Description:
Keywords: Iron, Iron-sulfur, Metal-binding. Helix 3 runs parallel beside helix 5 (149-159). The protein has a single domain (45-337), classed as Aldolase class I (TIM Barrel, Alpha-Beta Barrel), CATH 3.20.20.70. Strand 7 (164-168), helix 6 and strand 8 (189-194) form a beta-alpha-beta unit. It is globular and about 65 Å long. Mean pLDDT is 92; it is low at 1-6. It has twelve helices and ten strands. By secondary structure, the chain is of the alpha/beta class.
Amino acid sequence: MLERTKNIKGRGAQKNVHNRFLQDTHETRSDFLEYCHKEGEEADKNKTQYINTFPKTIVNKVQSPDVGMEYSLNPYQGCEHGCIYCYARVTHEYWGFSAGLDFERKILVKRNAAELLEEKIKKKNWQACPIILSGNTDCYQPVEKELEITRSLLKVFLKYKHPVGIITKNALILRDLDLLKELAKDNLVSVNISITSLSEETRRVLEPRTATIKKRLETVQTLAENGIPVNVMLAPIIPSINSHEILPMAKKVAELGATSIGYTIVRLNGAIGEIFSDWIHKTMPDKAEKVLNQIASCHGGTLNDSRYGNRMRGEGKIAEQIHNLIKLARLKYFKNKKTPKLNRTLHEKYKSGQYSLF
Length: 358
């Protein structure tokens, strides 16, 4: 049984950590907390703030050689899902915020995302290449239900017959099933659903504001039944938290129609090491040191591993065991399954927004 002693309800991180790019620090003093207690006031209202931004570009060239994508697009920066392990937390520091609570509570919204995408893929020198939604933060996080920025992006991809990949852990993607089915007719879309556990209790502590495991499994099944290729990311694998679930998870998603699985071993880059360590000592105090030591054993003795090729696959005995379990799962449950490559051939004819006769 997981022991939960969190202070801040519905959040992954339990504090803000110092932004490495800023000289000044922010500290919540004990005398201030005492004052709030005596006055019956809330020291922290724990509200999410949405900040409108209007970038000049939206499609990012991915330079990292080991992430499996060439271009990404993120309609939101920061993510209210609050996954404690999320590697994208450190990118919030570039915006002047903390990788801790700020990442979950200060969400940057790119209102002009669809216009920028359309402008990009209509350029004469642009050659169709799959653009991945959510290379950094989830494009179907809670605010998408109201803003529908991701839906507007899918309409652009469909209009110009351009290939698109999606990474999400939110069942909200099924709202856009009509567009996904149209894209799938021409093999223009694939979806990656992230499933970290089959245990709802584990999900709640690792990913507090994500869709339930039941809904995510139903999402895999619904997408597959509608002819949309689904890869399931068993990610991240965290030793002694979900590493024992690899085979059961693989079996379940294969039965529901997933065409493949991928995985990563958790890596606590930058400020995430401090955030995760604080979280696990409050959430799972009895096993905190065991988990942290096992994570470190997968990354050369440190929680922070940025080496390309090693950072997501790990090394050492535990990493080797995880790799062998994934290999066995693929052999046992996905032997005759294959995810088709996305179609790059149609876009050139549709760059004007309509089919060319010549």
